[in-house]
Structures are given as structure tokens and as C-alpha cells.
Amino acid sequence: KKCLKRIKKTHYLNSFITVTEELAMKQAQEAEHRLLRGKPHGPLDGVPFSVKDNFCTENIETTCASHMLKGYCPPFNATVVQKLLDQGAVLVGKTNLDEFAMGSGSTDSVFGPARNPWSYTSSYREQSPEQDPDSDWVITGGSSGGSAAAVASLSSFMALGSDTGGSTRNPGSLCGVVALKPTYGLLSRHGLIPLVNSMDVPGIITRSVQDAATVLGVLQGRDEKDSTTVQFPNLATSLPEDFDIRDICVGIPKEYHAPGLSAETLTQWGRVASMFERAGAKVREVSLPHTQHSIVCYHVLCCAEVASNMARFDGLEYGHRSAVESSTEALYATTRHEGFNHVVRTRILSGNYFLLKQNYDRYFVKAQQIRRLIAEDFRRVFQSGVDVLLTPTTLSDAARYSDFIQEDNRTRSAQEDIFTQPVNMAGTRHPHRSEIPTYSTVQNLETAHIYFTSCQRWKNLNT
Ligand code: GLN
After folding, report:
1. Strand pairing of 178-180 and 48-52?
2. Domain extent at residue 385
3. SS3 label, residue 205
4. What does the pLDDT look like over 199-209, one tens digit per residue?
5. Is the pLDDT of residue 128 over 90?
6. How many folded domains does the chain comprise?
7. What is the pTM (predicted TM-score) of this model?
8. What CATH number did the domain enclosing 406 receive?
9. Which residue from 72, 117, 241, 404 has the fewest beta carbons nearer than 10 Å?
């Protein structure tokens, strides 16, 4: 009830597309009965959660924040959603995103942009929209901005996001919550409407690292409906009792001192590195030499997969159908023109261009080769004895909405993914530490602070 109240109270954040109030109350009552009888399903029984609106939810509208899927109610639940429901977790709603998860601001939704809850704290001094409807705000980051805002604003205790190039970690960082991008193959993608199949993973957003680990424990595992999933033996999903920070070697990739990195972010990065050092961890510079090619390479591969993935939206099977029915081709074309925003249409066109017979080798094959080199970079570093990489998540803190939507900033915003997206392309996990899902993100100082305080067992870390 409290979460549903929070959703109503913070409706101006636009973090929810659908609120499943009735269903939530019914599920919560069932959970309450189980808890009263002393027979909960598990640690998540009765815990309210929200789900990014690109995961299929049975008989609940699933829009991908696109006109194309408005009104689409899937007949099944995504595996990760089903697993949470099976545990008794309570679904409170579906959250806002950039259309089809393409973007990094949660500003490109057919339902309007999501707003960062921290816009309305004293340090930003924005008037709440009730006080001043024209006031500016800072973005949530994206594309899972609704999920991050829902957790940050206490409207749910955990949320599912998706992460293809940073879409869970980026808003997690900008909204000051914990965001985890699990290793590819650890969680099922069945029912996650695809962006880039070879890079997409469901992401987990929570308020503490232990919560994220608990959710990971519930969601992980092989799923026969997703042939890319594997069973990871001995995956540790609780914080170890006897963890000694002095056994850890932290790598700082030198290429991540990228153009556009703000002075403030650089300082915070250094501060966190020194915290590790003071606590006894080894901190050393490492090299990921192909980082500079990753943004371009990602865009070629992303557009190519988008071009193929989006072919299913033809106006016949799902969602929107144009009124122009003079021919099948005309129906397809107008449906797709009306249904997709300019970002999606641009990627479809670019992708088909990269895949043309005469361009295929020059763009697609080349990008795949570079992808291999990027994956090798990570493998080499981990094999050299590094346990974790410490990097910022974004180049700077959250932009104001009015600045972010300027055309020149949008072009630049692709650059924002530089710290997060190489690892999606690498698809790697640590070769020796199979218990560590690669690239859990706890990376701005506020989030790092939550991390440290919630890991009291990390005794040597006296911050
Ligand atoms: N910003 C990237 C893109 O627009 C990544 C998005 C994501 O991770 N879903 O493709």
C-alpha cells in the first residue's frame, strides 16, 4: 500500500507507464497470508517490484514506450518476471523507458520523459511540477530510467531493467541506486523484447548490494526457452563472511580517461580508488587498448541487429496497424512510419545499409572483428590477476533535461556509453572468479557509499 501511495504521490516523475494496483493488492494479500502462516515462498515473498515496459507481462500492456506496441497485452510472462512472481514478489507496475530501449536518457518515450527524483531535493532546488509546471529537471539516465526512478523514489524495492550498452547501469548511477548488469547468459532473455540479442541482458536495480545479490540468486539459471543461458556452478549470491579486501586487485583502465570526462567525476573516481588502496587492496593501472573503437563498433552491430529485430513489427501481429490498407506494402510502410520514432527508424535504415551485400564486409564483419579484440582486452586484463575494474559509469553527472535534448548534445550522448558498453560487446566473465558476475556497477560516490555501508562484513573497509 505504501508503494502504491508513493507511486501516486510522485506521479510527476513519470516513472510508470502502467500501475497494476488491483493485481498488486491481490498478490500482497496472498503473500500476507503466507507470511502470517509462517510459510513464505522465500526471501522475496511480498516484496513490491516494478518491471521495465519492454518485458512481457501476461495480460498486462507491454508497450516498449512506443506507439507501435500501445495496447499490446502479451499472453505470457518473461521468464525473469515469472520467477519473481513465483517467489511471491508483488508487481506494482511497468516502468518508463526510451522507445524500444534505444537511448540513454529516458527522454524518448511516447509517454513523455521520466524525471530524476533527485531533481526535487534541496541541492538542485527545482520547484516540484505542482509548484511550477514549467520548471526544469535532471534526467534519470536511461534507457531503464523509470525503473531506477521507481527504486530511488521508494515506489518499489527492486526493479527490472534491461542492459544492452549501459541502460541499467547508467540510470542506476544517475539516480543513486545499485544497478547490476549480470553476465550475458546468466539470466534468461525470454520475454525481453530484443534490442540487440547478442548483447541484451536483464538488469537488476535495488537499494543495496545484498538485495541485488538476492534477486540475482532468484533469477539466474538455465532456461530452456533461451538457448543462450547457461548454468553457472557455484554462483555466490550472498556477501561472503570472510571477505578480505587485501586479496583484491582493482584495475583502473587508462583508456577510460576519455574525452568529456568531467573534472568532478574524475575526482570521485580517484577518491574511490584511494578508499580501496587505504583499505589494503592493490590498485593498478591496466590497459584496454581497443576501447576507442567501441562506440562506433557498437553502433554498427546494434543497428544491424535492430534492422533484423524490428522486422516483426509489421502491423499484422502486434499493436499498431495503420488505416492505410491499399496494399500490403503500403500497410507495412505506413504502420512502421507511424509506429516508430525517428531514433528507431534511423537505426533500422542504418542497419539495413550496413547489411547490404556490398557493405557487409566493410561494416558488419569488420565490427565483429573489432568486437573480438575488445573481448580479448578484458580477458587479458582479468588473466593478469585483476579481480575487478573500477570505472565511472557516465562521463558526468545527470544533465538537465533542457540541455540533454539539444540536438548537438544528443549526438554527443552516444559517447556517454563509453564506460558501460564495451563489456556488453565483450560478453565476458572473469575467468578465475566464476562467482563474480562481470561488471556489477556501483560506481558513483553516493552509490559506492551505499555499497560500503551495506557491506559491513567488509571489515577492512573503514569508511
Ligand atoms: N544507449 C545505448 C543505445 O541507445 C544502449 C541502450 C541500452 O543499453 N538499452 O543503444
Report:
1. unpaired
2. 2-297+364-454
3. strand
4. 999 999 999 98
5. no
6. 1
7. 0.92
8. 3.90.1300.10
9. 241
